[in-house]
Structure prediction request, 645 residues.
Amino acid sequence: MSVAVTIESVEKRFQNFPALRGVSLDIQPGELVALLGPSGSGKTTLLRVIAGLEQAERGRVLFGETDTRDLSLRERRIGFVFQHYALFKTMSVAENIAFGLKSRPRAERPNPAEIKKRVSDLLELIQLPGLEKRYPSQLSGGQRQRIALARALAIEPRVLLLDEPFGALDAKVRKDLRAWLRQLHQRTGHTTVFVTHDQEEALELADRVAILHDGRLEQVGSPDDVYDHPATPFICQFLGDANHLPVKVVGSQAFFQDRPVLGGLRQNLGGPASLYVRPQHLRIVDDAPLALPGVVEHLRRNGPLRRAEVAVEGLSKRLDVDLASQVAPAIGERIRLRITHGNLFAAA
Amino acid sequence: MSDASLPYQIEDLAPARAARRVSGESRIVQFVLVVVSLAFLCLFLFLPLISVFVEAGARGWHAYREAILEPDALAAIRLTLFIAAIAVPFNVIFGLAAAWAIAKFEFRGKSLLISFIDLPFSVSPVISGLVFVLLFGAQGYFGPWLAANDLKIIFAVPGILLATIFVTFPFVARELIPHMQSLGSADEETALTLGASGWRTFFTVTLPNVKWSLFYGVLLCNARAMGEFGAVAVVSGKIRGVTTTMPLHVEILYNEYMGAAAFAVASLLAGLALVTLVLKTVLEWRFADAIAASRRH
Prediction:
């Protein structure tokens, strides 16, 4: 079996709204894939189609060689984790985790001792040993999400599907759980697909990121791939911050208002184009042949970095510039910016 | 409770306290409002209720016992219990089915169904009774056919049953619909992906989730099923000892100037109301907790 999940030109619409328009994707065994996109991009719908909670109108989903349309929900053996955990409130943690095992047909059902053993093993695995008798209302959000994951793992799923798994948690817990999920995945090796709208989460966690936009798959690739070589302007702006400059390409140079700003282009574009430059790819220089003059209008802190907002004549939006050195320019200072790296797209 | 739930409780309390301060009514206004509500309750609720029990006991314990153990009274009590025993389970099944359909599926005519469920609340019970007379009475649409097949619905127990079911059918559904809608389908979907069958999902996940609102609906439905007068009066024919329920029996006794006996039987109904009220209060208290817990997830 070379491919764990094959998604073949899946289409799905809700009333008249096309949620998925011909999405195809192969997922390798043991892979951790992120479905990334803004809300309304169809990422959750795609996850639910894989799970079998929604039916695709066209196209199909294969698990290995098996068409999932031939499988009942039970036979699909997927582990689905919801954003809001969907723990059974009336059951204890142990009963929640054991639910899948106890739901098996009598012949395949493990005996109570085995189930008990399995529950405590899983609690060990998710680093919450001894919580068997607690109820969901007595747990924190992060703990609930881990219990929900343990419950999904209990049925030994073919594929683990996580819908915004950390969406309802606060920033600190999100970060901790991210690292924890990464470790868990390395240990258990389940083929995992998770949905997120948080690009940072997707880039940090996933082996491959699949970016959806308006029901279409815009790009699939490793985090480095999609970040450094975005396939479309949308991805460029969606993954991290990017400044947009309307330019004109002549030969190997890009011109902003008749001023050359970027040279050495190998892409054969010619004519009007959109240049996207990340804040860290703008450097303040003393003087250089390819430089953009501007005035510092605002300084702010962005995590570990300081960032300057620079007004450039002919540009309605200020440019965000990450400051590499500790020496910051003063507000109102005239500076020159050099573009060290940019992504160029032909203007639509 | 772990400390995780603590911040919520603090948050819950804080706005209430702030709101009271902001609204800023003086103590006098508060006092007047409370007194007015209490006075109203006393006049229209407690006073009549007490008078029922006082009147019932006016002729002493012996007369009270006799009034209740008299054969017609016993028959009325039996019939009332029988009607409730059938109408309530029917209501539970209908309520669950309707609430499930409305909360979990999207379909055409859903809002129409929701307003139809409320219909018995907006129609006078007398009309509800007359509808069945029109359908199944001797001059009704199905009357000749029923007569030919020797079936009696109107002026018989089946008619009382139909009228009661009609009048009570919104109770359980109306309690369940908002609760099930607020719960969504994630729990059920989880159970299904974990390999549970539809029935197992229903009995182990859905039913426990809504058990308090279901119980609450059953309680209200039961009180109405036992106490319904208007619709039942129209279809019953008031054949003593055969088609008289407790409320009808009370009326008959009262019309025959047997006040003490009427109040004795009425006190049983009032007792039922009191028990329902107490259970309802207890449930509301439990139920609020369950709702809060479900929101907290």
Summary: The two ends of chain B are 14 Å apart (CA to CA). Residues 1-19 of chain B have pLDDT under 50 and may be disordered. Residues 259-296 of chain B form the longest helix (38 residues). Chain B touches chain A at residues 1-2, 4-5, 186-187, 189-197, 200, 204-205, 208-209, 293-294, 296-297 (CB under 8 Å).
